[in-house]
Design a protein that fits this description.
Strand content: 5-15%
CATH class: Few Secondary Structures
Distance between the termini: 18 Å
Order of helices and strands: HEEHEH
CATH architecture: Irregular
Structural class: alpha+beta
Number of helices: 3
Strand order of the largest sheet: 1-2-3
Largest sheet: 3 strands, antiparallel
Length: about 70
């Protein structure tokens, strides 16, 4: 049986927590930060956990992250 392929973009952007949730970086913090509120930039620090529907899609892209 051939190996299943992992989407290269997904493996660079997502990881899994110890409890099985999907962890991702927060969006909208790369450029044009002057025009964004300070509160938004503070809340965008670190990582966030994906919702159930989004994590289902990510796990479809990453078969070896499922088990």
């Amino acid at each position: 049986m051939p190996k299943m392929k992992t989407k290269s973009g997904a493996k660079k952007r997502f990881s899994r927590t110890a409890t099985g949730l999907i962890k991702a970086n927060v969006a909208h913090k790369r450029h044009r930060l002057i025009s964004k509120p300070q509160k938004m930039k503070r809340k965008a620090r670190g990582t966030t956990l994906l919702a159930k529907g989004d994590s289902t899609l990510v796990l479809w892209y990453m078969p070896y992250l499922r088990g």
